[in-house]
Amino acid sequence: MSHSENSENKELSKNSNEDIDKKNKNENIDDEDEDDDNDYEILSPDYFKYDYNYKIIVIGDSGVGKTCLTYRASTGEYQDKISPTLSFEFSPFFLRYKDKILKLEIWDTCGQEVYRSLINSFFKNSSLAIIVYSIDNENSFLSLEEWVRQCKGNCSPNTKFFLIGNKADMKDDRVISYEKGKEIMEKNNFEKFMETSAKSGFNVNKLFCEVGKCLYKETLKNSEVNKVSR
Questions:
Q1: Which residues have C-beta within 8 Å of that of residue 119, sequence separation ≥ 6?
Q2: What's the confidence (pLDDT) of residue 129?
Q3: What are the angstrom distances between the C-alpha of 197 and each of 2, 136, 150, 216?
Q4: Domain residues of the chain, as ranges?
Q5: Among 45, 49, 131, 216, which residue carries the largest CB count within 10 Å?
Q6: Residue 167 near residue 197, CB atoms below 8 Å
Q7: 42-229: which CATH topology?
Q8: Is 88 exposed, middle or buried (0-12, 13-18, 19+ CB in 10 A)?
Q9: The pTM is what?
Q10: For 89, phi and psi rounded to 5 degrees?
Q11: What's the rounded Cα separation, in Å, for the pair 152 and 150?
Q12: What is the pLDDT of residue 152?
């Protein structure tokens, strides 16, 4: 092979790899509010003052990484070996958005079938439900329909919904495409769909900041509606 042919093949290989990298990056890009996307600050979980308090429930099949997500968000750390949640576990998440302090009460729930009846009563008074599946587990994705039915049957009409495809670091084992997750979001009129990785930290803080922003904007909207109706 001539020197020029070898150089040409190397250039083609380089361009091909760049295209693959671009594709991998683009498949996890979500539509964002560009005007205020960075207008927040994550605060210590020991923070005690806040202006608004919201109850968040995290649901999905056992093993999709719900506990790892909430643990990563509240501590900034990842634990590989966490015992399955048997009832409910609470984690606080504080952020400053605009000029307000928001407290998210994040409730991690048990995912096993035998405990699902316990969750029904816990849906009440939830401001937002985060429904989680794992991108490397088709069964957890197929279970979404039942989780959505259970949510909408027990949550208040004002409850917001986020859909999360977790374990985004498991690229080689992916069985659920980004597009499939987005289709479920659009079909059910959820507020947002994102992929995350509790292990690498990818999009974890962003997820809960987006939750806070969504709920605060809804609070302001409802406040304006109340003013007009008086």
A1: 57, 59, 109, 110, 150
A2: 95
A3: 45, 12, 25, 25
A4: 1-30, 42-229
A5: 131
A6: yes
A7: Rossmann fold (3.40.50)
A8: middle
A9: 0.80
A10: -130, 140
A11: 6
A12: 86
